[in-house]
Amino acid sequence: MKFSPLPLIPLLLPSLVLAQNASSPAGNVVTFSDPGIQLDISLAIPNTTAAPFPLLVTFSAPLSVGWAGFATGGCMLRSPLIVAWPNNKSVVATTRWATAFHPPTPYLNTTLSVLSSSVNATHWSARVLCEKGCSDWYGGAIDPNNNNATFGYGASSHAPTAPGDGEEWG
After folding, report:
1. What sequence ranges are listed for the domain Cellobiose dehydrogenase-like cytochrome (predicted)?
2. Average pLDDT of the residues in 2-6
């Protein structure tokens, strides 16, 4: 897979993102929406006191979004990136890690699975479970008790060059 850095739309400032928090006995759900590209990303955090814990990330986007990614640490650098994109009638997901401003490489310290996905004539969606490595990482962790945590996301209108392979870089 190869990302094109030019069409990347990093949206890391809270003022650019509409976020909603919801709580239940099972945990918290945070939903991020970008009305400009019609991208919705939801993050479900279980009711726990500290990392590590599994994360459930849901992506929903029109086909004009070639890929979308979610940064659990608030930015692309030095935090797990959960990236998903449509491929035929299903969605591929992978985790990535970046140490500099260049395309991120596969992040091997995670256990990731696509629980369900769909692609139709206009949209794609996926429910992705990260069982290990996305809520805590070298140098950081998600605090499940912090309602003001910073997350980040990015998207592109360009699809990966090898959309069927979540691990191939180019």
Report:
1. 38-165
2. 39
Q: Is the peptide bond before 46 cis (omega within 30 degrees of 0)?
A: no
How far apart are the C-alpha atoms of 58 and 116, rounded to whole Å? 10
As a whole number of angstroms, the distance between CA 94 and CA 167 comes to: 7
Structure tokens at 169: 């870089």
Does the pLDDT value for residue 93 go beyond 90?
yes
Instruction: Report the distance separating Cα 26 and Cα 162, nearest Å.
Output: 37
Token pair for 87:
């491929």
For 69-86, the pLDDT digits (tens) are 999 988 878 889 999 999
- The string of DSSP letters for 27-79 reads EEEEEEEETTTTEEEEEEEES-SSS---EEEEEEEETT--EEEEETTSSSBTS
CB count within 10 Å of CB 58 equals 19
pLDDT tens profile 37-46 = 999 999 999 9
Tell the residue number behind the tokens 């797990």, with chain if given.
Answer: 80
